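Quick note —
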Amino acid sequence: MNRRSFLKSSMLIGGGILLPAGVMSLVGRSGTASTPDLAGFDGLVMGTGYSVRLGGSVKDGLEQQVLSVLRDVDTHMSTWKSDSELSRLNRSTDGDWQVMTPATTQVIAHAMSTSEMSNGAFDATVGPLVDLWGFGAGSVSTGDAVARGQRPGTQSISQTMARIGHEHIEVDLQANAVRKRKSDIALDLSGIAKGHAVDRVAQVLDANGVDSYLVEVGGELAAKGRKPDGSAWRVAIEKPEAGRRDVFRVIDLEDRAIATSGDYRNFFDDGGQRYSHAIDPRTGQPVHNGLASVSVVADSTMAADALSTSLMIMGADEAMAFAERHDVAAQLILKSGSSLAERHSSAFSALYG
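Predicted structure written out below.
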């Protein structure tokens, strides 16, 4: 297992579990369970942790089915695995259509749709910039100086920006094929793949007749039904502070999904300036827009994942206008001097106001 495959923003705590920034299950791993007698299981995959909690018993073979689909996502969509389907696409230079598995094709198609919808705030071709700033697989494999926490030069940023643009990707859903219009374009699905993984696990649980569950992969969660005592599944939106794990807001989650993007776990300091892993593909720079984190509630975890990334890149005013225009349930946590402030969309207020 590659422990860094889709690690968006995390820290190592006791027991060797990587916990990401964002949303915490209140019935999750050891040490956080408020209802410890709930059936379920935990594990490590895709460079992060996963947790499944059930309203009933664990059927024989269910845990292995879940692990199998998570490994499948990692095998096909990781940029940290040189033999993954995505890595092979990124290395291709002939401009021909590349036949992909249906799941990978659908995730790429959703990423392209979100890119259009967000006017490029979300862009899965951001991979070369992520590498340039030292947060991606390429920076590690090449030994780039930026991987040691140095800001890249203006010329390097400008040159890399020439390799960015979702408009250079074509997707044929009927043929399950993807084509790069520019040979040096590289996709990075880390802003959407964990959400897709949660949805895949939920599909497995649904197929096994499970009607009450809470699934988490790397901080992205989906819930179905209610707990055996009739109460709702409860999840905590984390207080966005580096080096600490405190609760900012607790919400009930039923038949919905939630995902969070933040700038406070994965970053480096250079010359007194903090540079986070949240790279704006429109400027080539880490965001400095006053947002500490964004949480989105949606019907699918994949959608919530991509939208939380989009809004995090946009900044508070643009994000809130986008959320209201598209009826997105979004909560924004903003830095206000040494304190934090909260803004949320009408759709979020209607759910949890």
